[in-house]
Design a protein that fits this description.
Elements: H1 2-17, H2 30-49, H3 58-71, H4 76-87, H5 90-110
Helix pairs in contact: 1-5, 2-3, 2-5
Length: about 110
């Protein structure tokens, strides 16, 4: 929670001084990154619940991520490049994680 408040504060102050930046064509859109990050959180949660040993079950976890990339019609290099782009732009990264939190809250309410 403390990290979230710090990120939100950084985003607030950064947004006061920056114009809206157009996202390059070779970077996933905020909405796409949000959807992918939701799925990643679900995968990581599932791995934690099933108590996978990350070393022993590495191949199985890699399959989950492969399915994720296939479902979103992307590849790992595109995701990695997009993640790096957003990590350098905290105001956009906070926007993505706000969407992730909202979506996970909706999923939790449905369950």
């Amino acid at each position: 929670m403390k990290k979230f408040i710090i990120l939100a504060s950084l985003a607030f102050f950064a947004s006061c001084n920056q114009e809206t930046e157009e996202i390059p064509i070779n970077i996933l859109a905020v909405e796409q990154m949000t959807a992918i990050m939701v799925d990643i959180q679900l995968i990581e949660g599932g791995v934690a619940i099933m108590k996978f040993n990350k070393d022993k079950n590495r191949e199985e976890i890699i399959k989950y991520y492969g399915s994720l990339y296939k479902a979103h019609e992307i590849d790992k290099p595109l995701f990695d490049k997009s993640l790096e782009y957003y990590c350098k732009r905290p105001e956009l990264f906070v926007e993505i994680y706000d969407g992730v939190i909202n979506k996970l809250s909706e999923i939790q309410a449905e369950v």
